[in-house]
Amino acid sequence: DGDISLHCQRAIVRETKPVNSRRYVASFDVENTTKGDSGRYRCISLSERGVGVSSYADLTVKQPPVPIAPPQLTAVGATYLWIQLNANSINGDGPIIEREVEYRTMSGMLMDTTPVDKPTHKIGHLDPDTEYEISVLLTRPLEGGTGNPGPPLRARTKCADPMHGPRHLEVDDIQSKQVTVQWEPFGYNVTRCHSYNLTVERGSAMPRHTVRNLLPFTNVSLRLVLTNPEGRKESKELLLLTDEDVPGVVPVESILGSSYEQQISLSWREPLQTYGLIRQYEISYKALSSFDTEFDLSNHSGKVFKLANETSHVFMGLCPGSTYSFSIKASTIKGFGPAVITQFTTKISAPLMPAYDQESPLNQTDSTVTILQLTGRHSLPVDPCVYTGDNRTYSGYWNAPLLPHKSYGIYYQAVSTANGVINVDMLMVSGAATRKPEPEQEKPSDHTVTITGAIAGILVFIIIFLGVILLMKKRKLAKKRKETLSSRQEMTLMVNNTQQHTTTVETHTLNGHTMSSPSSFTLKTNTISTTVPTSYYPDPFVPTAILDDSHTMTSETSSLVQSHYKQRESEREALPYQTGQLHPAIRVADLLQHITQMKCAEGYGFKEEYESFFEGQSAPWDSAKKDENRMKNRYGNIIAYDHSRVRLQPQDGDSGSDYINANYVDVSNTHTHTLWTFFSPMQETMYDFWLMVWQENTAAIVMVTNLVEVGRVKCCKYWPDDTEIYGDMKVTLIETQLLSEYVIRTFAVEKRGVAEIREIRQFHFTGWPDHGVPLHATGLLGFIRCVKAKTPPTAGPTVVHCSAGAGRTGCFIVIDIMLDMAEREGVVDIYNCVRELRARRVNMVQTEEQYVFIHDAILEACLCGDTAIPANQLRSVYYEMNRLDPQTNSSQIKEEFRTLNMVTPTLRVEDCSIALLPRNHEKNRCMDVLPPDRCLPFLITIDGESSNYINAALMDSYKQPSAFIVTQHPLPNTVKDFWRLVLDYHCTSIVMLNDVDPAQLCPQYWPENGLHHLGSLQVEFVSADLEEDVISRIFRIYNSARPQDGYRMVQQFQFLGWPMYRDTPVSKRSFLKLVHQVDKWQEEYDGGEGRTVVHCWNGGGRSGVFCSISIVCEMLRQQHSVDIFHAVKTLRNNKPNMVDLLEQYKFCYEVALEYLNSA
């Protein structure tokens, strides 16, 4: 045995083997070596016999492996972390035979070390919301050893859904406007997250909170909501009643008063905000003034009390013709509330006549009676006698002769007048009779009798002749109106019922006094009753205006018409037409009633108005008819008038090159001078078009046609896909924004020789159908608002065109002008606006259908208003929208939802004729939720005798037409139709918003594994994944009858966070994540071109919520504003039951806020 020294260290011999008598082989254990100790070594052995030296040998030291990089985090959950080991790059020597993962908390406590045999590893059973340090250990084979832990990864688990909601929620104190509640404290084991929110109205983290600003004597439902980033839990509902308070004011509009000469009857209703049980009312009254200044009103006041069930009182003993102030206030057990004050005036009474004894007349003739003047407090007149029947006129009153031999009663009359009311008292002062006339001495001669007879004969002939003429005219008029009488009868009745009956009373006052003393004289003989019509009903189909003596128009008309009168008087005189009627502007508040009346009798009112417009040429168009300009007109009868045409700058001195088929509309009542060009460019006029755009400094082009419609070219494509040169104009396409109903293209335009580049936008409306007009105006109104919002106010005129430049263009212009007028003046003047436009260009608004559509569009705009909200204002605006008005007990968002329900179109039976076919009844889950024919996706794949109907409707997204297909959960007998729909319409996503429930005929319509055969269709399960509230499954669909079509991949997203008993999803964040997952899959798999099938139990409210939120998120991304009203209205145009609850409508706003927070 011996020792060997290495680097001044001693090594113990482990084993020796003799080779011969002089040599042996020895092995040693060398410890604590490092990589740097490698090299050539020899051994020196010591023994009693001496020293021995060995030959040199190589020493190789191998270091255990250590990873260079920390593990990589690939997924995070509440109780797990997925990592990728990153063990391929190491320090030290390989090979590696074992990998281990070591993880510990940040406090240093070692949790576990686990062997790993895969590149990725899931560390489970972790604590939520806790940070961990994770390292990888590597081991070499045999005695290579295990290296040190590699660089650590620090990662935190997500929060977990709270274990339960707050418990033991109890009332601590109740007052009239606030309530204090308390609950059981809780810690991490309940919240399962270190950061959480606890919400009771305004929130509190302490186990006690006071909710303020409540309404007194109101049932309050309280829930305590515990939320963390991953979920929420609610406490049980706590119902309580706040304490009473003094009541609100009695509604002034509910106070009704009936006035008499000496009493006033008063009635009222209890306050809208009682804030408790009404105990009594206090009514105070006080006289303020009187028409009779001799009345002493100082003591005319008082106070009465009425019980809660008595809401009326009669005040007696009041002064006639006097105004009284009444103060009414109600009380609860807490006291009296504020008073409401109103005034009523008693009726005037007749003057009190003095006592008078009847006297005999002083003189009587056959036509007069003379009596003595009544005396009193007035001085005696110069002539004390009154001569009744003297055939003279006094102050405009004719004292007519009396009849001979008749008895008369003679009265004095006293009159009180005030505010147009007359009250009369009379006193009989004498009874008398006229004398019998003396016998006539002469008889009329025969000559007189002959003349009288001749005159009478002539008069009879004239009367008969006039009667015949009137009868013939009456029959002719009746024949002319016979065709329209029955159809107009209903409208005439409605119009007549809305007329206000008025009666004019003419009152004469003497010497300017409103109350007269007993000084007027009345002779009573007999009563003549004259029947006068109390109202005049004009023909409701011939609108009229009232002219005063100077022939100025008194009805309110638009400044458009007035400016036309002033600036174009000479032109108007030259026009070959006059309607003969003046059409007054219509108040916005009366527009609904006006349109309703015009649509009666199968739209006779609109028909008559439209036919009153002059058709065809109404002004010279000589320039357009020149030979050199004929080829510049797409249609020979829609060309530019000379007086309003756009004149281009002549090219190369050619005076004939100034023509383009375009007209100005100089609307002086709008904010900017506006140019509308009305022809669609042709190949020959492209340069002229861009030259006009440059010349007029235009920033916006509005296009209201498609390039090809019904196989006919409607417009030449006058813009490039990249860059194009038009003469000396260079046009470059910068950006294209595709939306569901219109396209926005942005161009950079340059002109040779001009050092300027202009940005010009083209707004191309693609939603106008090939025939007729759009079914709903919602899309066009949104388009008009977009044009206004994106056009700079300092820009030049706007260019508008369709194909001919008359029909659709006219609709766009009239709607745009009228919306400005409605906002600025509160009236619209559609008729005169169309007439004015036709004076500038031929046949603007080409059809009666377009004329009616203009009215409907303006009405929808006025009813709905502009509901778009900038993203940076959404939070504050939504807060205001939810604020409750104590007077109406309503809020802005409730009123907005009520308006939405009012303007939502109602489906008629004929709209759903296909769904109502007998063979399709069994395919409908609910017969009151049916798709209209115009939105049906008809099935294409042939399947035996099955029909091509499915209860589904195509819906537009924000960017893509018919991007959504909303349907019901498949019935057991429609599962095959459902998968046919998915395949036929190239759907890439299915969104499921309800539970599988066979009891509700909601079966599982997909295979859990393997292949599912549905006739020629094959649905193959590929994979499934669960992440939070969403189960995502991928299927491969294949039609064996058409193998050339290949297969289609479809992903189904089943949302678990919307229990059937809730109106809205549990978590806004989870629902928003669902929308993002669907969008991401759509974009990745099919470039956003595939459709999405959305279904719930009946294809109604829940599906509408998903589609609306998807549209709203895209709005926020594209234009940084949100218009939930417009999004839901657009969906409801196709299916009225989209987003059918107020809570769902609010949820859309709240998810929009959540989107902004997450962004």
Automatic annotation (TrEMBL):
Top-rank taxon, per record: Eukaryota
Q: What positions does the domain Fibronectin type-III occupy?
A: 67-160, 248-351
Localization (cell): Membrane
Keywords on record:
Glycoprotein, Hydrolase, Immunoglobulin domain, Membrane, Protein phosphatase, Signal, Transmembrane, Transmembrane helix
Q: Which membrane topology describes this protein?
A: Single-pass type I membrane protein
- Where is this protein chiefly located? membrane
Q: Does this UniProt record's set of keywords contain Hydrolase?
A: yes
Catalytic activity, EC: 3.1.3.48
A family per Pfam: Fn3_PTPRU
* The UniProt record lists the keyword Zinc: no
Query: Which EC class heads this enzyme's classification?
Result: hydrolase
| Reaction(s) catalysed (UniProt annotation) | O-phospho-L-tyrosyl-[protein] + H2O = L-tyrosyl-[protein] + phosphate
How is this protein named in the record?
protein-tyrosine-phosphatase
List the source organism: Monopterus albus (Swamp eel)
